[in-house]
Amino acid sequence: MARRSDSRPVAMARRPQFLERGGFEVLDDIPGQERIYSRMLREALDLAGQAERQEHERDEASDTRGGHPARRLFSCAGGPVQNALYGSEQFLAFLAEKVGMPLSPTGLQGTYSYYVRTGDHLGLHRDIDECDVAVISCLCDTGGPRAGALQLYPKRVFEPLSRIRATPAQDRMSMHLRPGQTIVVLGGFVPHVTSPMARGQKRIISALCYRGHGTTAEMFGQAA
């Protein structure tokens, strides 16, 4: 979810309520989506043979948004099950209420990511310009509560990534999603990391990206 660099500033005129609460929320279920986690896991496993390996040791993440952070993982485009959730009007309305602004999908498909080798990870980044809000669902995780955690920096939204890399322990919040949990996060603004997998750990996630619209979106940094 971090590819192209964005030239627009991260700074915001004022903080909307969702960002004041940290810019993220963990959900134990997705309303109106019966058995969605088991259905997406089955789809992700069916598509695993199409997943491509991403390995990039040199960290080229932008100080603001996008770029190309260091990474080791497999990924592939989602299928019909994930797509139905991605474009669901009910789900869009639910997310919009959570974050306080209208949203739209950034593309036709989301992705499945597979962290299945020791040390697989995704380096520190903010998401690309089009991905103001990221919805990350844990479908499978065979590791313990410490390995492969999602690390967030909700108190360092306004800082360049280079400064956060220099002091990575400062205000770091580690969150280990269990299978069947989803995090809604302002991924374009809250710096985040997927820490390295432990030996033998297998982790599969669904990742969906949405762009914000309207006056509230401008408060989130949309306006130059």
Explain what the structure shows.
The structure is a single chain. With 224 residues, the chain is an alpha+beta fold. The chain has one domain (17-222): Sandwich (Jelly Rolls), CATH 2.60.120. The protein has 6 helices and 14 strands. The chain has helices at residues 17-20, 36-47, 80-86, 89-99, 161-166, 214-222; strands at 24-27, 52-56, 60-61, 67-68, 71-77, 103-105, 111-115, 121-125, 133-141, 150-152, 173-175, 182-185, 192-194, 203-212. Strands 1, 2, 5, 6, 7, 8, 9, 10, 11, 12, 13 and 14 form a 12-stranded antiparallel β-sheet that branches. Strands 3-4 form a two-stranded antiparallel ribbon. Helix 2 crosses helix 3. The longest helix is centred in the N-terminal third of the chain and has 12 residues, at 36-47. It is globular. The model is unreliable at 2-15 (pLDDT under 50).
